[in-house]
Structure formats: C-alpha cells, structure tokens
C-alpha cells in the first residue's frame, strides 16, 4: 500500500496554544487521581500525546460533528475541540471513572463544543447511527476492530481517521479489498514524524451505508474478527 506524507498542520493561534497548555496541566493533575493516560508530567504529555493528536487536524471535515471513540483523557478529542471550535465533538468512552474526570477537564476548559458520553460505542451506535461527519480514534484496537466501532457512527460521505503505530501494515494486510463489507473505501495511509519515530494515520471514506449487522454486541468485535 502506498504511504503518503500527511498534509501540513495548520498554524495555531497563541490563544489556542494557551488552551492546549492548560489542557496538558489539567490532564497531568487528573492523571494523579485517575489513570487517564501513561505519563504524568506535562512535558511528556505535551510531546508524546498532545503534539501527536494535532496531526489529525488536516483530516477533519470543514463543518459538522465528530465522535472520538475510546477518548480516555480526551485524546485526540479535546485537542481537536480546542483547535476547531467550529466543529461539535462527542467524547465517548465506556469507563465511567475516566469520563467523570474528563467531564471536569472539559468544564474547566469551558469547552462549549464538546460533550462527554459514557457508553460502549456498540450501544451508542443504536441511538446515533450514521449521524457523524467524522469519527476519530487513538490507541483503542487494531484497524479492523476500530473500523467496526466507527463505521456505523459516520454518515455516507463522512470520514474515519485512526492514529496508528508501526504495526499498521500488518493490521491492514489481511483486510485488503474487504473494507466494503463495512461500507468503507480502501483506506489511505499517511505517515508523519514524531520526535524520534514515525507514526501513521489511516483515513477511510464512508462510501456506502454500514450493514445493519454492524456493530455486533459489545465485546464481539475483538473476540470474533469480522474478516476471518
Ligand atoms: C488505551 S485507551 C486510549 C485512550 C485515548 N484515546 C488515548 O489515546 O490516550 C483506550 C480506551 O478505549 C476505551 N474503549 C475501548 N473500546 C471501546 C468501545 N467499544 N467503546 C467505548 N470505549 C472503548 C477504553 O475504555 C479505554 O479508555
């Protein structure tokens, strides 16, 4: 599969950078009470997590609603909501202790364009099927599994963006030519540099409705892979 360079990141205003720094502080403090993400110190959070999440920005739609599935402490959803106040974000995760802490962070940041929802994506899809213009995901599962979570939530013509590590090639190999089973185009694969390593972004277009059989009931996607 051809790997393309990620389009350039937009310039961020001083106000946006201040908000992002404030998010790093709030996440660092909250992380001491509830484990929202790995590192605690602000600088590591900034370089390894917040700067990483900025790379989703060039792939977001011009307008509409975006869902971040498995958002944890708000990565990438809070970063994107700060940078794109013109889009509406749903920050979704099934762990209530994380969503309670994230609610406090969102309130402290006065992020009017983000709502925190505590639910499994498979259950959430029953209420909000094909209502989003885009879905984003970071560090949740392998490519095929996250596609089953995200595809039912996005409208036809919308996009799905997944932040991936170096295992992405192995994850994609068995799925070549099979994505239309979820109503998806073949994905584009983008590469970008992060500190001392390369990172990857997958982008699918929702080209047809997702069959009603997906998503299966909670937990099924990981136990019985749809493409096997
Ligand atoms: C490793 S954390 C990643 C959190 C965040 N995206 C990040 O990059 O730091 C994975 C999160 O996905 C959530 N998760 C996994 N599957 C999910 C699903 N189907 N629906 C909602 N949340 C899910 C877990 O509860 C967990 O908080």
TrEMBL record:
Name of the gene encoding the protein in the UniProt record: rsmG
Q: What does this protein do?
A: Specifically methylates the N7 position of a guanine in 16S rRNA.
List positions binding S-adenosyl-L-methionine: 70, 75, 121-122, 138
The Swiss-Prot or TrEMBL record describes its family as follows: Belongs to the methyltransferase superfamily. RNA methyltransferase RsmG family.
Q: Any idea of its EC number?
A: 2.1.1.-
What's the source species for this entry? Pyramidobacter porci
Q: Does the keyword S-adenosyl-L-methionine apply?
A: yes
Name used for this protein in its record:
Ribosomal RNA small subunit methyltransferase G
| Annotated Pfam families | GidB (PF02527)
Keyword entries, A-Z: Cytoplasm, Methyltransferase, rRNA processing, S-adenosyl-L-methionine, Transferase
**Single GO molecular-function term?**
rRNA (guanine-N7-)-methyltransferase activity
Compartment annotation: Cytoplasm
What cellular component GO annotations does this protein have?
A: cytosol
């Amino acid at each position: 599969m051809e790997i393309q360079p990620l389009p350039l990141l937009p310039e961020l205003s001083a106000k946006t950078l201040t908000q992002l720094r404030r998010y790093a502080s709030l996440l660092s403090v909250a992380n001491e009470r509830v484990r929202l993400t790995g590192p605690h110190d602000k600088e590591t959070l900034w370089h390894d997590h917040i700067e990483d999440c900025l790379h989703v920005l060039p792939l977001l739609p011009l307008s509409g609603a975006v869902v971040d599935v498995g958002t944890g402490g708000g990565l990438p959803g809070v970063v994107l909501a700060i940078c794109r106040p013109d889009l509406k974000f749903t920050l979704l995760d099934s762990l209530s202790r994380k969503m309670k802490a994230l609610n406090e962070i969102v309130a402290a940041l006065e992020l009017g364009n983000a709502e925190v929802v505590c639910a499994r994506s498979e259950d959430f899809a029953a209420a909000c099927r094909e209502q989003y213009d885009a879905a984003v995901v970071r560090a949740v599962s392998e490519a095929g599994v996250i596609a089953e979570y995200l595809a039912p939530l996005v409208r036809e013509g919308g996009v799905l963006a997944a932040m991936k590590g170096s295992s992405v090639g192995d994850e994609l190999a068995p799925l070549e030519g099979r994505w239309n089973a979820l109503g998806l185009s073949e994905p584009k694969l983008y590469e970008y540099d992060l500190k001392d390593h390369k990172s990857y972004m997958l982008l699918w277009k929702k080209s047809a409705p997702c069959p009603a059989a997906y998503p299966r009931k909670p937990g099924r996607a990981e136990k019985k892979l749809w493409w096997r």
